[in-house]
């Protein structure tokens, strides 16, 4: 059974950067969506971005141009590079995997496997 473990969260000032990592127990391949979601207090979980194919990524409008998803050469770690962070980026960040068929990448209900999350706090 797939296991996913996030790391790299922390507190950072507005405008700063963080890189989150998600270590997966299976290869990160193009059969699935491999996504990052986040959840702020008292808000619904929202899709941040996803790897939807080989070298093909999608992002929420709120993070386009600031965040980037990549994977390592061993195909077992998913990264989320976050630049120019804003207070509204604060939340718990999760990596997740979903079968593609019948779903958009940003639909949380498509994802059956989630990590435990890592907290990101951006202060002004």
Written account of the structure:
- This protein has 124 residues and is mostly beta strands.
- It is built from no helices and eleven strands.
- Strands 2, 4, 5, 6, 9, 10 and 11 form a seven-stranded mixed β-sheet that branches. It has a four-stranded antiparallel β-sheet with strand order 1-3-8-7, with no helix packed on it.
- A hairpin with a 5-residue loop joins strand 7 and strand 8.
- The mean pLDDT is 96.
Describe the biggest sheet? 7 strands, mixed
- N-C termini distance: 40 Å
Distinct helical segment count: 0
Shape: globular
Whole-angstrom Rg: 13 Å
Low-confidence stretches: none
Structural class: mainly beta
What's the total count of β strands? Answer: 11
- Portion in strands: over 45%
Helix content: under 10%
Average pLDDT across residues? Answer: 96
What is the helix/strand order? EEEEEEEEEEE
Key phrases:
mainly beta, four-stranded antiparallel sheet, 124 residues, seven-stranded mixed sheet, 0% helix, 11 strands, globular
Short description:
The chain has 124 residues and is mainly beta.
């Amino acid at each position: 059974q797939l296991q996913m473990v996030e790391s790299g969260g922390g507190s950072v000032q507005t405008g700063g950067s963080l890189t989150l990592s998600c270590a997966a127990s299976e290869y990160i391949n193009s059969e699935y969506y491999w996504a990052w979601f986040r959840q702020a207090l008292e808000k619904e979980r929202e899709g941040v971005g996803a790897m939807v194919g080989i070298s093909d990524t999608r992002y929420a409008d709120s993070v386009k141009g600031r965040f980037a998803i990549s994977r390592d050469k061993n195909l077992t770690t998913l990264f989320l590079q976050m630049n120019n962070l804003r207070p509204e980026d604060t939340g718990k960040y999760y990596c997740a995997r979903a079968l593609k068929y019948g779903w958009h990448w940003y639909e949380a209900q498509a994802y059956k496997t989630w990590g435990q999350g890592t907290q990101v706090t951006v202060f002004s």
